[in-house]
Design brief:
This protein is of the alpha+beta class and 129 residues long. The chain has a domain at 48-129: Nuclear Transport Factor 2, Chain: A (Roll). The protein has helices at 2-18, 51-61, 76-80, 118-121, and strands at 65-72, 86-92, 98-104, 110-114.
């Protein structure tokens, strides 16, 4: 009886050890543009403003310290307006609010600015600090 319980316990332990967690589901690919999101970068005529220029554009309009930056595919509404690639920047304000700034990576146009403290972080005309 004791031996049967030991064998059953061992079998249960092995079964639990071999159990695999379900695999992560693939991302919803419909959320991306139809073609490869960064495929246009292979085109030699495709020009992207450099990151330092995107940071300068954002810094001319908002006070804050750049804490993160990346190239990202456009949202569906941005893609529908002809945007092909986005500079996504995060600025930290003096009050430690984080602003998310999305710029068209080809033109530098502002697409979206979000976050707490926008009004306070916004530079006014002639505001140099």
């Amino acid at each position: 009886m004791m031996r049967a319980a030991l064998c059953l316990g061992l079998a249960l332990a092995i079964a639990l050890a071999l159990h695999r967690a379900p695999m992560a589901q693939p991302r919803d690919m419909d959320a991306l543009p139809d073609d490869d999101a960064f495929g246009m970068l292979a085109d030699p005529g495709f020009r992207v403003i450099p990151l330092h220029e995107a940071a300068k554009i954002a810094g001319q309009r908002f006070r804050g310290r750049l804490i993160a930056a990346r190239l990202a595919p456009p949202h569906q509404d941005e893609h529908a307006r002809g945007v092909e690639l986005v500079h996504e920047l995060r600025l930290m304000t003096k009050r430690r609010n984080v602003l998310l700034i999305r710029l068209d990576a080809r033109t530098g146009d502002f697409l979206e600015v979000a976050g707490a403290g926008l009004t306070e972080a916004r530079r006014r005309d002639g505001d140099s600090e």
